Amino acid sequence: MKEKNNLRKIREAKLMSKAELARLAGVSAVTIDRIERGEHCRVETKRKIILALGYALTDKDKVFQD
Predict the structure, then answer these.
(1) Of 11, 12, 15, 20, which one is least surrounded by beta carbons within 10 A?
(2) pTM for the complete prediction?
(3) What DSSP string describes 5-60?
């Protein structure tokens, strides 16, 4: 089942490459690509990405819709 998220839209609005976001979040670029395609990821990975984008954890719904 695909998971809806705004990751690609937010990343591109911040003019970030997948590799740059991956480096900031401490995950692989392949992981970023998988998440943007709607594949499942762990809560810890979501947390790292939210913080790397400059959001507070309370803003998680702006990036990931559960």
Answers:
(1) 15
(2) 0.92
(3) B-HHHHHHHTT--HHHHHHHHTS-HHHHHHHHTT----HHHHHHHHHHTT--GGGH
What are the structure tokens assigned to 12, written together?
């591109």
Characterize 24-58 residue by residue with b for buried, 16 or more Cβ atoms within 10 angstroms of its Cβ, and e for exposed.
ebebeeebbeebbeeeebeeebbebbbebbeeeee
Counting every residue, how long is the chain? Answer: 66
CA distance 52 to 14: 11
Amino acid, res. 22: A
